[in-house]
Amino acid sequence: MTDMLSVEAALDQLLAAAVPVIESQTLPAETALGLILAAPLVSGVNVPPLDNSAMDGYALRHAECVDGAGEPQWLSPWLPISQRIPAGHPGQPLQAGTAARIFTGAPIPDGADCVVMQEDCEAGTDEVRVMRPPKPGANIRRAGEDIQIGQTVLEPGARLGPAQLGVAASIGETRLTVYRRLKAAVFFTGDEIVLPGEPLGAGRIYNSNRATLIALLNQLGIEVIDLGQIGDNFDATLVALQRASAVADVVITSGGVSVGEEDHVKAAVEKIGRIDLWNVSMKPGKPLAHGRIGNVDFIGLPGNPVSAFVVFCLFVRPFLLKRMGAIFRPPAGFHLPAGFTRAKPGRRREFMRARIEMNRAVLFPNQSSGVLTSLAWADGLVDVDAGVTVNVGDPVRFIPLSELLA
Ligand code: AMP
Ligand code: MG
Predict the structure, then answer these.
(1) Which of 171, 173, 179, 169 is nearest to 151 (CA)?
(2) Whose CA is nearest to atom 16 of ligand 1?
């Protein structure tokens, strides 16, 4: 075991070891949610394709709403309504001295240079007058104001979430070139762990890390190969590692990675590969393990459910995103006043399960690394440095779980 590493140094080391996938494939856009764009997405169209109305109202010439002296009038003259232009139906050029009835999304007729919303007009059946003077160009969405032909709308490395898939659709794309989906093989160690659904024998506990980890990986768009659970046994661990590394890009395990007599994962990885075990100066969290078995990455998560979850969010998630080819942006978090007191400074940087209540960060009462209900309760983690005391009202950094998940 090396010396205690800071959170930043550990993350840097882990990210330095993450080699992005290079193989790409072109897929129907509907199947690309969560995948990473592998080629620039360049638009062949303008969005919107033509000037169109942002309002239901009347398209007209701005000059015809202004009196002879150039002063805005509150009431334009009555203007005949010369045409009706619903969305999707290009109209005719606008005759001088008239207005066109127009609806949101409808093309602006040639000659018109503003749209007055209907609430600012008084309308009869075939004529309209303007009660409030518009600005030139008012309520016109310009062709290409969102996207112009030839523009790169998404860069390689973009993660395809709902907004990105919408942007791709807005330029008419049906297929997207993405990096291939990463595969993670997982297994869980411990003589004590029992799968939910099985009877719980004496001295045993249910395996919660399996549910947590598989869900975390699914949310990242990673294909999970679940190799089940094994006892605290060197040979079984070795066999599981061999099977896992034969089928996946990354092997992720839970438990057994400390340096106790019943912890066999480190030795088993070292038998067929190599491993770095970093002692990160943080709470919760035990050693963070990364290694390689051939070309396959190995990640060893601690067994404690909260530690495994937090270590995953802070370290493994960035590692996997980089490995997937994504551009990773570290979670920013924000500061808000503490709704708690911490009288005794901690020896390690601590990530505490917290919620925002009345604009203050309040803590879950039990911060033990075995208490998984703290994470189910929390909206985020409060990040308190080592050696720091906190009084109610002091600013503390809050990292929303939404920045650490998905
Ligand atoms: P370990 O890292 O193997 O020393 O485990 C640390 C703690 O986490 C022990 O109390 C284990 O019982 C517990 N633990 C290990 N694996 C799991 C699991 N899959 N689900 C829930 N708790 C676990
Ligand atoms: Mg164990």
Answers:
(1) 171
(2) 303
